Amino acid sequence: MDPESKVLKFPPGSGAGSQSPQQMTDAQTTSATAVLAPPAPPQAEPPPPVWMQRFVLVTSVVICLWLGFVLSVLPWQTAWTDNALVANHPNLRWFLGTGFVRGLSTGLGLLDLWIGISEAVQYRDRR
For a Cys staple, 47 with which of 36, 78, 125, 126, CB 3.0–4.6 Å? Predict the structure, then answer.
């Protein structure tokens, strides 16, 4: 980056009041420039302790695996449509029993299992 790109130049008439650009001297022209300081580098936060990183990893992996297993297996059990939540709503019970909804739930469960396993495999401590 060349030094000229860090210099902020103001228009000639902005700093001299009512003078025209022809009446301004070289001293007035150079006084109308300002040097910009480079921005300060962002303060990097220290990473959390290793035990906290591993605790969060284990917790999230366990939750992902449990939720993925439930979403993958439960739609194919009788408890999916024969429960107290949908007993009074026959249209909802029919909709939950369709193959599309069961397949969608199973697909989300498999995706959740994949996410949990990949998080565990790709884990690296930030130090």
Answer: 126
Q: CA–CA distance from 61 to each of 50, 54, 57, 105, 119 (Å)?
A: 16, 10, 6, 19, 7
Structural tokens at position 82: 């024969």
Helix, strand, coil content of the chain in percent (nearest 5): 55, 5, 40
At 26, the amino acid letter reads D
Q: How confident is the model at residue 111 (pLDDT cuts 50, 70, 90)?
A: very high
Query: What is the three-class DSSP state of 35?
Result: strand
DSSP result, 78-119: GGGTSSTTTTT-HHHHHHHHSHHHHHHHHHHHHHHHHHHHHH
How many Å apart are CA 110 and CA 57, to the nearest integer?
Answer: 19
For the entire predicted model, the pTM comes to 0.61
Residue 109 is given by DSSP the state: H
